[in-house]
Every structure is written in C-alpha cells, then in structure tokens.
Here is the input.
Amino acid sequence: MSMIFGSMRALFDAILYPFRELSPLVGLTVLSVLFGIGMLVVLKYTSNQEKLDAVKRKIHAGLFEIRLFNDDLRAIMRAQWDILRHNVSYLGLWLVPLLIMMVPLILIVGQMHFHYGYRGFEPGEQTIFTVELKQDQGSKPAARLDVPEGLSIDAGPVWIPAKRELSWRLEADARGDYQVGFELDGERYEKNLQVVDYIARRSPVRPAATFLDQLLYPAETPLPADGAVQSIALKYPPADAGISGWDNELTWMLVFVVVSVIAAYAFKGPFGVTF
Amino acid sequence: MIWSPLHRNGDMHSPRQPRLAPSVSLLAVLALLAFALPAHAYIGPGAGVALVSSFAVILVTLVIAAFAILLWPLRMTWRMLRRKKREKAVIKRFIVVGLDGQDPKITDRLMAEGKLPNFQKLAKQGGYHRLRTTYPSISPVAWSSFSTGTEPGKHNIFDFLDRDKRTYLPQLSSTAIGSVKKFFKLGRWRIPLEKPELRLLRRSKPFWTILGEYDIWSTVLRVPITFPPDEFYGAELSAMCVPDLLGTQGTFLLFTTRRSDETFKEGGLRFFLEGQGPTYVSEIQGPPNTFLEDEPPLTVPMGLEMDANGKGGTLSLDGETHRLEVGKLSPWIMLTFPAAPMVKVTGICRMQLTEAGEHVSLYVTPIALDPENPAMPVSHPSYYSTYLAKKIGPYSTLGLAEDTWALNEKVIDDGTFLQQSYDIDKEREEMFFAALEKLRSGSLSCVFDATDRIQHMFWRYMEDGHPAAEGIEAPEHANAIEELYQRNDGLVGRVMEKIGEGDVLLVISDHGFTSFRRGVNLNAWLLQEGYLKLKEGTDGSSEWLRDVDWSQTKAYVLGLAGMFLNVKGREEEGIVEASEMQALKDEIVAKLHNLRDEEKDAIGINDLFDTGRIYRGPYRVNAPDFIVGYNEGYRTSWDCATGMVSGPIFEDNVKAWSGDHCVDPRLVPGVLFANHPLDDSEDPGIVDIAPTVLRLFGIEPPEHMDGKPLYERSRFGRGTTASKADGSPAGGPTKKAAATAAG
Here is the structure.
C-alpha cells in the first residue's frame, strides 16, 4: 500500500512540477479538465449508457409535458411526479460508476488537496508542532527537537500526558524546505515543514504506517511502524487556490469540481458519453 | 476521509483531531450532501455531474410547474373570455383511429372467418358501415375531406401532384416549399436572412382548429396533409408530404460494390462502395449546404469493415460505430452533417447490409428529418416532435415513411419492407397511446399507414395470375395482408380497452383497395386520339411531358387521378377556348366511358368524372378537369403518372406495387366502425366525420361543410341510452355522465 501512495506522490510531484511557480488556478484547471475527461471515460465504460439515455429522455419528456399540457393541472402534477421518479432512477444509475470512480478519486484528490489546500509558511509565521507518542511515558519524555537553521523554537515543549503529546511553537525565520527532527530514545523522526511560496506537496500530518492514516494523509511517507511516535503534526495555513480572499482548504475543491464538471459537459459530445 | 483539519492556525490541538472516525465521516458526508459544493468536493466531479444534472432537473421542474400552476387561473380566465360560445359537449373524448386503406371486402371476409374478433365486437357494439370516399379516392384528398368536412373543391387538394400552370411540371399539391432569396455574404459563406416559404395549400379549417376556437383540445397524429403543421389549440405531428433530408418525398440510398450505370427509376440513388474488402469507404450525401455559395452537398464520411464470416460488418460514421447484420434492419442511426461553424443538420435513417460476399451492398432508408431537431417544422407546437422523440424514442418523420420504392426496385426484400412498415406502425401506436393517456377531454385522430403500404406492395400474392407475382413460387409473405388485418384487429382491441364512458371511438379508412394488374397510359391514348401532340423529333419517352407540343395539345395527364385540358388563359400555352371546353369534355368523356382493354377483354375505365359537375367549392378551378374512374385491376400506368406519352395504352403492372385504390371511387369505399350506433347511417362518408365531432362537442358545423353529422346530440343525452346494432341497450353514457366527464 505504501508503494501505491509513494507512486502517487512521485507522479503528482512530476505532473504538478511545471505549474509550481504559476497561479494555482492554472494547474488546477488543467488537472480538473483532465479529470473531467477521465471521468467521462470511466462513465462511458462503467455505466449503463443506454439506460441513462433512456431515463434522461423520460425526464425531458416530462418537462415537455408540463409545458404542453399546461392547462391541465392533473397532467402537470403527474408529469412532475414522473420526473422525480425518473430522477431517482437517474441517480441510481450513477451509483456503479461513482463507486468505481471513488478509488482513483480518493488517491488523486488526496494528492491534490495537499498541493492546493495549504500554502507554505511565510517568514515570521508561527505554528504548533505536535508529536503524539504511541505509549504512555509516565512522565515527560526526554525528547529533543532538532530545528534546522531558518526555523526557531519559540516555546515548548509542552507535555500533555493525557494525550501523550509534546508540542512546540515554531517560528519561520527564513524561506526553505526543512526537515524538523525529533529524537526520542535514540531514534530520530522527521517531519517536513515548508516555508516556501510555490506550490508543493505539504502535509499537516506525518501519519502512522496504518492504511487509514496513509489514506488520510498520503502526502508524506508514514512514520516507522515499530517506532515510538504515532504522528507528527503541524498546522499549515489554508491556501486560496488562486482566488484572492478565499483562503480555505476547500477552495481548490470548488475550482476542481466546477471546472471538471464544465469539462465533462464540454467533452461529453466528442467522447460520445451520455449523462 | 475529509481533508479538513478542524484546528485553526496557531491553536493548540491534538494531531488526531483531523482524522474523523468512520461514523463521523459518514455523518459529515451526509451533511455535505445537503449542500451542493461540499458534496461535490467530497465525491468528486462524477457526483458533481450527477447532482448538478439532477438538481437542475428538479429546479427546472419546480420552476416550470410553479409557473404553470400560478398562471393557470389567469390562463383559464383568459381562455374563458376569448372562447366562443357553444353548447355543452355531450361526449368526453372523440377518438379516430385511421387505418389508411383498410378495405371493406377483405374486412368482411376475415370477419366472417372469425379472424377479426375485435372488429366484430366493435361492429356489434356500435356499428360497421362502408365509408364513402372522395373523388378521387386517394389519401391526400380523402383525409383532407376528413379534416375539413368539405369536398375537394373547398379544400383544394385533388391529388398528390399538381402541375405548374406555367411550366407543366409537377409540384406538390399540398405544400409550397420556397427557397431563401436574401443572404448576407461573408467570403464564401452566406448567412440566410429569412426563412424559406413553407405553406400548406389545403384550404378550409380542419375540425381541430374549430374545436380549438372553442377551447377544446385536439391531438392530431400523422393525419395526411398536415405539413406544415396547423396552428391550433392542441398538438399535431405532420404526415404526408413531409420531405426527407434531401428535400424529396423519400429517396433511399444504395451503396454497392457492383458497378452499374443504371439509375433507379423511382426514389433511389446508387453510390459506389470503394474498397477491396473487407474495408470499404464512401460518404453519405445530405442536403445541399445553403451556407455556401455553390451549395455543395453536405456529407458524412462512412466506413464499412466487413466480418470475415460475411455475416455482418461494422459501420463507422463520423467516429461512431454501428453493428450491422446481413439481412437485418438496423435501429435508427443518427446522421450529423456539419453545415457551418456551430450549425449542424441532423437526420435519422436505418441501414441494412443486403449482401455480403463477392459483392457488398448497403441499403440506407430515406434520411428522415430528425424528430428531436427537425430541419423543418413537423409539429405543432414545434417542440411536440421533440417531446414525442423523448417519450418514445426516434421515429420516422417522413411523409411516406415506408420505403415502397426500394421494394419496387428490388433493393430490399418483402421481409425487410414488412419489418420497416410494422416498426413504423409500432412507433405510431406508442405515440397514439401516449396521447390517448394524456387526453382527458377533446379529440384525438391518428392515422396508421401500414394498411395502405402493405396492401400496395403485397396485393400480388392475394390473387392468382397477378403479373407482379409472375415467377414467384410460394412467397414467404403470401399472407401479409391477412396478417396485417389481424394486427389491426389487435390494435383495435387495445384501443377499445382504453375507451370509457362518454368516449366516441371511430375506426375508419379513407378508401378501400383493389388490384393493380394493368396500367393505363392515358397520355398514349390522348396521343392516339389526336388530343395530344409531340414535338417534332421526339417519341414521347421523356418524363414530365417534356416531349409534348403544347401549341397543339388539348388534353394531358399528370399525377395519379386526373386529366387536364390545356385551357387558354389558364395554362401557359393553353389552346382550348373556354367556350369549347364543355364540348371537348363531353367528347372525351364519351370516348373514355367503358374504355376496353381488348387484350384482356375487360373494361379498363368505367367513367370519366367531370370535376365541373362533381365539385362545388371555390377551388375547383385548381382541380383537374376530369377524375378518371378506372375499373378494378386498372390504374394509371407508371409511365403516364410521370408524364410519359410513349408506349402502349394498356400494359401489365409488374412492380411490387401491385394493389391500389386510385380507381372509380365507387369501387373502393372505406370502412367505418363505431362504438355507438350511428343516427344517420345512410351512406356515411368520410366528409361527415368533421361535422360529427363538432356537433358532439356542442358546436354547430359551419355551413360550408358538406358533411352531415352522423350522430344526434340526443343519442348521448339525458335518459337516452345508446342502443346496440341489434337493438339491445349498449350502455352508452347518459347526457349527465357524458357532460360531467366532458367538464
């Protein structure tokens, strides 16, 4: 499984590399269009196109019926009921392709989120760097945070026994792509921290080596399975995905969905897909 | 799986918090589904598309419905204010099922044999009569009389074809189709600045227009002579005379590897299929591209990859592939012809590989206007054809949809023709029942054409010694006509199941049928008798009377039914003075009365009917001067119909088109079945239907109508019970019930 996530990281780093210095909208648009087309292909081969077409036709017929028999209230209500019924069938016909699309979508959206959902720190910004340990240490563990030049520890560590967490407040002093080290019982663990202004893969969490954790945070290699650390987290600021003032982790998704839906509509004719 | 960490920048939170438990995730997903954007974000564009489409549908539905409901009281008030006053309707629905050409003699025989139980039942319930047809007894004329309640002199339809009085060339009798004259030129492109003229030449109001004036809805499906469609309170799908995409009345295409310089005499074009097998290429030609100066034909490239086993092939058209089997008609195939940037012309056709072996041949039906997006108006309202296409799927819009020419030319076989005809009838039946289901009160008229077409093409198997069946031993479809009548019987049964209290059902045909064994070339007769002269150096074999010397010609024949005099001041080169007309008419009538076919020792023509005597309306001046009353077994010959003069006067008809009705109208009445006994059952005619409908809906038929109502309103009145033909009560609706139902 790690290999799959590793491959996805490498793939998306390569795909998005040409766009890293450009406005996020450019890369997002290109990827969204490609995804929209990919979705068409999946839909073409996994959905029952004939049934989709048939149910769509029935919906359209219902709409025409409302217009045609607009003097007949009973006919209008009946047409409405038929339309709603066919609409449910329509959504039902999407289930299989949606389930099939889900698998690649999770992998792809995971990667995109960690490229476009967060921005890198600016010099002078602070963040909380938190290490969660696997086992209860009894007392504050003798751990050390190895902060490279360009970052500094502003406060900490704070030990919260109930949560088995050690937290530091770090401050970015200069731009750079850093590895922050954490040492415990002679073992060293690292977490990537970016003080950069270009688009890059950045994860708020370096997860444990479990499937679910990797699925949720596929942007960074998982921690060693036999290590003492459960996870290392920090808080990146949300990105605006190129839409000024829309600083939110989900802004990119808005762009992604809108553009890919438009692309799907635009290319459905050439690809001979009905939906 | 929500990538939305809950902690904010600078806050101290557990790193576990961003990971939500599955149940929480599920709840979040459900919550997100309630809001469009996060839902898209989560499930992705696939769901986005599904939800956007679905949401749009619901939104549009609600908006349209809300508008319709909100405007309903206003609309009703407006209608009430505008509506003409009438008496209360005594029926709820008036349903006419037209079985074009159903013959009473065959019907009688099969009913007597017990093979038409539903017709029998309907006859017993209400009645069964011969239905007087029109002069001439052909569909465009008869159905026009059906719709207008008038004789041809008042509705102006006398034949399929009329002649241009200036050029003597044929033109459609029912529709004037013009061309665009004004363009905006842009380099090689030209943008039309007007719509071409499209005018229905039928005169007199059809009954559905009159019903509409009184706020009574009508649905009219494929009743002949409704192109371009009438505008009235109701819906109409045009029929006869709707052209194909090439602008003709039906031109099939044959793509073949067989080299031949021969052209089809009727309704077909031959194209060479290039290739060395198994791959062949060609292109399908569409209509001329009027957006370009020289109007080159629009084309769609076509490729055909034959299977190694020779049982079928794969056709590729503009990137789309279609599977074809030898001997099997394909479903409807859409053809898209790009005409200009953003402008496409679409049509639909069916295809069949008719041979695959040493030679490959591909038959393409005439390309019908796409019902979803027709290049010409084929319905009222304009979206009605689209609605029907959405409701029942693609269907043929062509006026004469069944490809009789292809069978005549032996491009397709009997089985293919039957399949095509039945498929078209099935489309029609679906339309009919869809309309019937929606009709709560008003009228519904639908004409089914298969009865006419199949009798035309399969009569040769009905009788011994038909010249068109010579050499055909034990034909597979010898019983096609009997099976057809039985299919019609099934249809009638299904319709009867849907008929309720207060409904009047009429099952009618516009004319009957008879054999067409011998063709009569009256142009040759006129030549022989000296009424028609040829130009010097010609032999009369040119079509459309091109060899005729008009300066010496007194009479000529064009079309199926009529004969014209070459009248001075009326025809461009007319020579017959008005004062001579009647004497000349009488002379020709006398000569053609009981005209004998000496070779067969039979009468070929019973009578010649002087239209000056049989028509009364204002448009009789446009009529032929005579309607020819051919005897049974005779009809105008193929050569004569296309304006050829050469050849014998009488000749065998060897075409598959072997039955006809274009004879003495007294010989081919139609049928009338009704679910209520007629009050006036003496010689009912097709012209009586329109006044009947009006009367039952409380409208006094206009005086110009020639027909007489077949029912009295009192039949459906309070306390009056409709009685069966045998005199027992039929359980017909009381006036109260009917009036209530009629609203």
Notes: Chain A touches chain B through 80 residues (CB under 8 Å). Chain A has a mean pLDDT of 90.
